[in-house]
Write a structure and sequence with these properties.
Layout: H1 2-21, H2 49-64, H3 73-79, H4 84-95, H5 99-117, H6 122-128, H7 134-145, H8 149-158
Length: 174
């Protein structure tokens, strides 16, 4: 039943794409040599209850292994009782990015939360977010947000209510 539903969903998706590419009134003919300009609009993603459950499990596992520097793709897949390739393909299909990019993004978001709380120093935050080396953590943080961790801490120490000026440069998952 699920397989038949998936096949039917793919057929509908294919039909929608074909309709957007070749509307009935401008089907390509051999007599026309004019170039056509096509405008494709992405379809709204449909998240099924199974996908929601998958995302919830993923979030629980990432939270559990937030400080584990040895947490890698095979460990992530086995935590969900899936093969590495199957897990990666499903993850990309549901969330649109690779599993390890997602983990890094979640770690960076947690690091930002911890920096803004001003309860820990940068080395402690690095270890709490799964980095073995505080210097490497700072490099990754700057690459991700465009600011050094110390700049974020100083910015919030000067004006803790002004958080509107800090925007991530790269947002892999919102």
């Amino acid at each position: 039943v699920k397989v038949a539903a998936l096949i039917e969903q793919r057929k509908l998706l294919k039909c929608r794409i074909m309709e957007s590419l070749f509307p009935q009134d401008c089907l390509p003919t051999s007599a026309t040599t004019e170039k056509r300009h096509l405008q494709l609009q992405p379809l709204m993603p449909e998240i099924t209850p199974a996908d929601e459950t998958f995302i919830e499990q993923v979030m629980q596992i990432v939270e559990k292994h937030m400080d584990d520097s040895s947490f890698n793709l095979p460990a992530f897949a086995s935590a969900l009782n899936m093969g590495r390739t199957t897990f990666t393909n499903k993850f990309k299909a549901v969330l649109g990015l690779s599993p390890m990019d997602f983990v890094i993004d979640m770690r960076m978001k947690r690091a930002e939360q911890l920096l803004r709380s001003q309860q820990f120093n940068i080395a402690e935050i690095a270890y709490r977010t799964g980095f073995n080396n505080p210097k490497y953590f700072s490099t990754c943080f700057k690459k991700h947000y465009g600011q050094r961790p110390t700049d974020v801490m100083k910015q919030d120490a000067q004006n803790p209510l002004n958080q509107a000026g800090f925007k991530p440069l790269l947002c892999l998952y919102s």
